[in-house]
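User: What would this chain look like folded?
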Amino acid sequence: MFKEDCIAYKGDFYTVEWYYDESGKSQALEYLMNLKPEMQRKLFYLIKRICDNGKINDITKFRNEGDKIYAFKPQPDRFLSFFIQGKTIIITNAFQKKGDKLPENEKLKALKYRECYFKRVKEGIYYEDD
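Assistant: Here's the prediction, encoded as structure tokens.
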């Protein structure tokens, strides 16, 4: 996967990328593509807002979920993510939230994907060379 293929949006403050697993699939992007266009727009509004402005102060829209995992919250969906150096946010996984609390298994997926991302980047196998 080329780095440019991973980019969801690039702004003045941040770049948001989709996480891709070893087989080249992005669960979060696939989830998004199965949403109705109006629901897709809700996420892209939040992505554009953080990338262009540097922050989202409304915890009902973007929140630190602990363990350096963050959630974009276009109701009723959640897109979990993490920050990396170089002002990049990686969106790892997505789901429809049905209860009051973040499902532990979804957070564990995000943590696993973050670990895998850093391991593959360190090994030089996450992004293909141009």
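The radius of gyration is 14 Å. If you want, I can go into more detail on any region.
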